[in-house]
Amino acid sequence: MGNPEEIDIDAAERETSLAEEVKYHLPDDKIKEIVEAARQQDSDIVHAALDELSIPDSAELLSKINEYDREELLSMYSDALDPAIFTEMAPELRRTYLSEMPAARIAQMVSELESDDALLLIEDLDPDFQQQIIKKLSAKTRLVLEEGLNFPEDSAGRLMRRELVSIPDFWTVGKTVDYLRTASDTLPEDFFDIFIIDPAHHLTGEVPLSRLVKAKRSSQIKDLVLDDMHPISSETDQEDVAHMFRRENIVSAPVVDDSGRLIGVITIDDIVDVIDEEAQEDILRLAGVDSGDLYRAVMSTTSTRFRWLFINLLTAILASIVISFFDTTIEQIVALAVLMPIVASMGGNAGTQALTVAVRAIATQEISGTNTWRVIWKETLVGTVNGFLFAVIIGFMAAFWFASPILGVVIALAMIINLIVAGVFGAGIPLLLDRIGSDPAVSSTVLLTTITDVIGFLAFLGLASLLLI
Amino acid sequence: MGNPEEIDIDAAERETSLAEEVKYHLPDDKIKEIVEAARQQDSDIVHAALDELSIPDSAELLSKINEYDREELLSMYSDALDPAIFTEMAPELRRTYLSEMPAARIAQMVSELESDDALLLIEDLDPDFQQQIIKKLSAKTRLVLEEGLNFPEDSAGRLMRRELVSIPDFWTVGKTVDYLRTASDTLPEDFFDIFIIDPAHHLTGEVPLSRLVKAKRSSQIKDLVLDDMHPISSETDQEDVAHMFRRENIVSAPVVDDSGRLIGVITIDDIVDVIDEEAQEDILRLAGVDSGDLYRAVMSTTSTRFRWLFINLLTAILASIVISFFDTTIEQIVALAVLMPIVASMGGNAGTQALTVAVRAIATQEISGTNTWRVIWKETLVGTVNGFLFAVIIGFMAAFWFASPILGVVIALAMIINLIVAGVFGAGIPLLLDRIGSDPAVSSTVLLTTITDVIGFLAFLGLASLLLI
Question: Same domain, yes or no, for A30 and A116?
Answer without folding.
Answer: yes
